[in-house]
Write a structure and sequence with these properties.
Layout (H helix, E strand, L loop, with lengths): L4 E3 L8 E3 L12 H29 L29 E7 L5 H13 L5 E7 L5 H9 L3 E5 L34 E5 L3 E3 L13 E7 L8 E12 L3 H10 L10 H9 L5 E2 L6 E2 L1 H5 L1 H7 L5 E3 L19 H14 L4 H23 L4
Parallel strand pairs: 3-4, 3-6, 4-5, 8-10, 11-12
Antiparallel strand pairs: 1-2, 6-9, 7-12, 8-9
Helix pairs in contact: 2-3, 2-9, 8-9
């Protein structure tokens, strides 16, 4: 028997209606116009409102000032004089994987080329990097210090995978136990262009450079700071306090320790000029600003792209000199905006190899 009824669903409480045919003339106002069309319009309206709310929610810029939590009980200014003892000043970096060993070596050489005489201390995760990587770092002049990994809070939920080891950086506050009174922390993907010893003599316990995001990011030139360069007074007491509060503080997990530090030092951080942490994103965001700063840059930060890594390079792979130069050339060709800046890193690498190639040769397994 032919189908004579259709189900109207929610529009009529689940009733069945006779299908229109020759024996049942169509009504002047069709059921579609009377019931389905208004329902469809309501659904479209509800969907539009939902999307507008979601877009607005994601477009809101997080600021630790807007969700301020008084976590940090320590003073902003430290009046005790610094630098009377050369061993009390240190440039510090971290090594979490083998593929950054060459970058840390270039960084150390660039610090010395800039005539800084501060100690060079490299923290590495015990058991996570190879002896070859440690040999390269030692040959470059780093004083090596094995530290235990600090796991991200909440099991690392929400943390980007390439930031998963970054809470280990908090160990830099423990260096007061090694006689360090002031330190400048530098990420391994930075390069020193000019001497920055003035950062050792700041009266502030914590100083950093505001962050910068690319043209497609609404955050732009941000009030929050980038944790790739930090000027601090180390304190084991501060470290213990921070470790206790990472689990309970509210902050976006995605940027790991940088998000936490922005909250912890939110109202107590001295914000430094961009020349001390010149993220290459500045050039993409506003080339005029980059041109203004370029001649005075002390520290360049290769955030967006790494000139010392090949595409698809495994974390355990240490590039040969030929591969390293290939990586620089590849980066300059693929990312022409930063060809000059990647060239700076390549020149620093060549200078280092000219001075220290024989030392590195001993590190080959």
């Amino acid at each position: 028997m032919a189908l004579r009824y259709f189900f109207t669903g929610w529009t009529q409480g689940g009733s069945y209606q006779l299908l229109p045919n020759d024996s049942a003339p169509r009504r002047k106002d069709s059921l579609y116009r009377k019931y389905a069309l208004p329902g469809t319009l309501l659904l479209l309206l509800a969907t539009t409102i939902f999307l507008l709310v979601e877009v607005n929610r994601w477009r809101r810029i997080y600021s630790p000032f807007n969700d301020y939590q008084p976590l940090n009980p320590f003073p902003v200014v430290h009046t005790q004089s610094n630098g009377s003892n050369p061993d009390a000043l240190a440039v510090v970096s971290t090594l979490y994987s083998n593929n950054y060993a060459v970058a840390t070596a270039v960084l150390a050489h660039s610090v010395r080329t800039a005539k800084s005489t501060a100690r060079l201390i490299l923290l590495y995760i015990d058991g996570q990097v190879s002896e070859e990587a440690l040999c390269i770092s030692r040959a470059a002049g780093w004083e090596l210090l094995a530290v235990p990994r600090i796991a991200p809070p909440h099991g690392g939920k929400g943390v980007r995978w390439h930031f998963i080891d970054q809470y280990t950086k908090l160990h830099i506050w423990s260096l007061d136990k090694m006689g360090v009174e002031r330190l400048v922390y530098l990420d391994a993907d930075t390069l020193v262009r000019r001497n920055f010893d003035e950062l050792f003599h700041l009266p502030f316990d914590f100083a950093a450079v505001p962050d910068v995001y690319g043209p497609g990011d609404v955050r732009g030139f941000s009030l929050t700071f980038n944790a790739g360069v930090l000027a601090i007074r180390p304190s084991s007491t501060v470290l213990q306090d921070m470790k206790e509060k990472t689990e309970t503080a509210r902050y976006p997990a995605v940027q790991a320790e940088q998000s936490f530090l922005n909250l912890y030092f939110c109202a107590k951080a001295a914000r430094l000029p961009y020349i001390y942490n010149a993220l290459i994103a500045i050039k993409r965001r506003n080339p005029v600003v980059w041109k203004e700063l370029k001649e005075d840059l002390s520290i360049v930060h290769y955030t967006d792209h790494k000139p010392f890594l090949l595409d698809g390079q495994l974390g355990e792979k240490i590039l040969t000199p030929e591969e390293t130069r290939m990586a620089v050339d590849e980066a300059r060709q693929k990312h022409g905006l930063w060809s000059e800046e990647f060239g700076w890193w390549g020149l620093a690498y060549d200078r280092m190899m000219k001075d220290m190639d024989s030392k590195f040769m001993r590190c080959n397994p």
